[in-house]
Amino acid sequence: MANKTLYIGNLSYRADEQDLERAFENFGEIEDIALMREPVTGKSRGFAFVTFEIDDALKPALEKMDGEMISGRAIRVRLAHEKKANNKRNNLRRHYN
Q1: Torsion over CA: 83, 73, 30, 4 (sign)
Q2: Quick one: how far is CA 81 from the chain centroid?
Q3: End-to-end Cα distance, the chain
Q4: Domains of the chain
Q5: Which residues 6+ apart lie within 8 Å of 80 measured at CB?
């Protein structure tokens, strides 16, 4: 399975999903935009994930958008990687369950 997701870091806390859509829509059809927010306040955590319909959009988006300005801040764009399990937490669960 091919990776179709970019990690967008150093986002302005003012940036929203529409800002990200406008910035990345020219590279290909966007499947999903996940702006990470604080659970209680709903405020942005300063990073997001943009998933494209096809992986061909990744390379041009990565090359063009890394360092570009969105809502007054230069963003960092990287390939997203699957989150690894927190071993410490898993070990505690095994120990106490």
Answers
A1: negative
A2: 10
A3: 34
A4: 5-96 (3.30.70.330)
A5: 3, 5, 6, 7, 49
Coil, helix or strand at residue 51:
strand
Token representation of residue 39: 């659970």
Cross-strand partners of 33: 50
CA 39, 14, 74, 65 torsion-angle sign: positive
pLDDT digits (tens, 9 = 90+) for 18-59: 999 999 999 999 999 999 999 999 999 999 999 999 999 999
What is the model's pTM? 0.82
DSSP H helices, 1-97, are 17-24, 58-65, 87-96
Tokens of 10: 């150093």
Give the separation between CA 22 and CA 66, rounded to whole angstroms: 15
